[in-house]
Amino acid sequence: MSIITYNRTFRRSFEIQICILSILTGNGSVLANLATLPIGGRPIGMGSAYVAVAEGPESLFYNPAGIAITEQSSIALFTSRPYGFRELTYESLSAVYSSRYGGLGICLQTFGSKLYRENGLAIGWGHHFRNRFYYGVITRIHQVQIKSYGSDSAITFEAGFILVVSHRLRWGIAATNIRQGSIGQGHESVPKIIRMGLCYRPMREVLLCIEVDKETRFPLEMKGGVEIRPLPTFTLRCGFGRNPSCFSAGIGIAWAFFGFDYACMFHPVLGTTHQGSIYFRLRAA
């Protein structure tokens, strides 16, 4: 293969990957999209309306206050290959450690292929006031690598709160990229997102969630989800999103300290994405 042919092939593959990436995240940004990608089998199964739920290691991706809500130390592994494109594969490893001094969380993320890759590292801390008001902060490092173009990184900060209104109702709010970090020679802004939502439990086996997200440069996005637990070890979920429009469904299976969450997300243009999480709960601190 000649150098000219190779460059054309590389450029075409890269352009296709970036085009699909932009559609996937629902915005025009092509850098630092780890901040906008949905993470976790349980949250995705509920339409990613998770800012007021924020339980377990997935709280590191939706609301730092959830680090304090999590009562058991746990570890979660997640993987997704959007719409079957290997180049868009992204994965995460996250963990939360719970203690009487608050919760500590850490996560690693990776997205993309050898042409375009993003990596992320985050460390967070959360605490509470009288088990009614939960708060947390996260420091996140984003790194972008583009073949033949080099790499760059940025540091951002996030904060979140959850108010337990009653044993049935929670209100949550979280903001990403408070520092307004940018990346690359073109100073591409890392997405800045504000999430706000409610979760309501009309009965012990049912959880209802509604959420509004605002990325500073784009319209409001509405999300909603339902979780039903017909059996102590088995859970059903479904959810929706608007702008972009999508639907999701999922199941959860738990045995003692081990669990599995599967989610299927449907996009009207690109099709179906299958994704899942495996998590391990440690003994309560």
CATH superfamily: Outer membrane protein transport protein (OMPP1/FadL/TodX)
Portion in strands: over 45%
Would you identify the regions where 5 or more consecutive residues have pLDDT less than 50? 1-15, 23-32
Order of helices and strands: HHHHEEEEEEEEEEEEEEEE
Number of domains: 1
CA-CA gap between termini: 59 Å
- By CATH, the architecture is named Beta Barrel
Class by SSE composition: mainly beta
CATH topology: Porin
Q: How much helix is in the residues?
A: 10-25%
CATH class: Mainly Beta
> DSSP helix count?
4
Major sheet description:
14 strands, antiparallel, barrel
Principal-axes geometry comes out as globular
Please give the order of strands in the largest beta sheet.
1-2-3-4-5-6-7-10-11-12-13-14-15-16
Overall pLDDT confidence:
86
Please state the CA-atom Rg, rounded to the nearest Å: 19 Å
Number of strands: 16
> What oligomeric assembly is this protein in?
single chain
Briefly say what this structure is.
By secondary structure, the chain is mainly β. It contains four helices and 16 strands.
Structure write-up:
- By secondary structure, the protein is mainly beta.
- It has a single domain (3-281), classed as Beta Barrel (Porin).
- The protein contains four helices and 16 strands.
- The strands form two sheets. It has a 14-stranded antiparallel beta barrel with strand order 1-2-3-4-5-6-7-10-11-12-13-14-15-16. The protein has a two-stranded antiparallel sheet with strand order 8-9.
- The model is unreliable at 1-15 and 23-32 (pLDDT under 50).
